Amino acid sequence: EVQLVESGGGLVKPGGSLRLSCAASGFIFSGYAMSWVRLAPGKGLEWVSYISSIGGTTYYADSVKGRFTISRDNSKNTLYLQMNSLRAEDTAVYYCARDSAKRSSDYWGQGTLVTVSS
Amino acid sequence: DIQMTQSPSSLSASVGDRVTITCRASQSISTYLNWYQQKPGKAPKLLIYAASSLQSGVPSRFSGSGSGTDFTLTISSLQPEDFATYYCQQSYSTLYTFGQGTKLELK
To answer: What pLDDT, on a 0 to 100 scale, did the predictor assign at position A68?
Structure first.
């Protein structure tokens, strides 16, 4: 059974940093690209970042470019999102998702809440 | 960036109704269009990929169509569990943008 479990969310002050993790199991992690997507309170889904299966290619939404860094450790079956210079507008539930060969996200984690507030 | 616009933003319907949600892309995206369902407090669920392919395990009352810039998601006969928010997403460009969502509510 495919499982994705996010962790690392919490309350952080504006300008602070946080690192999210997503532990994967039930599939060959190194064979799949992965993404982060967020849902801010009262807003819609926002795609945040993508990383290829071996980590050589990454993409970012304009809203996080230069502040967030996606990475992965295929030996640990874990995806990461390093978030720096956090802003109030980064407050959201962050989901990791597995990207299928059909360019869609076919499995999702349960999400981890990040709150940026003083 | 490719902008995705859904309509309507909200929709009231009854169990058994046929419902259609529209998604328009700001430029042609071929058939690189996905549809997701999200319920409060839950993760999104993939319904349709590549504009018209039904994800495994998704009921056949869900269908998708379209290509280029205009796409639709149709639910042929609404069931109580279908009341949720629906999002389209383009995967044509490297920045996989979502539509703003359509909230489907019980009339």
So the answer is: 98
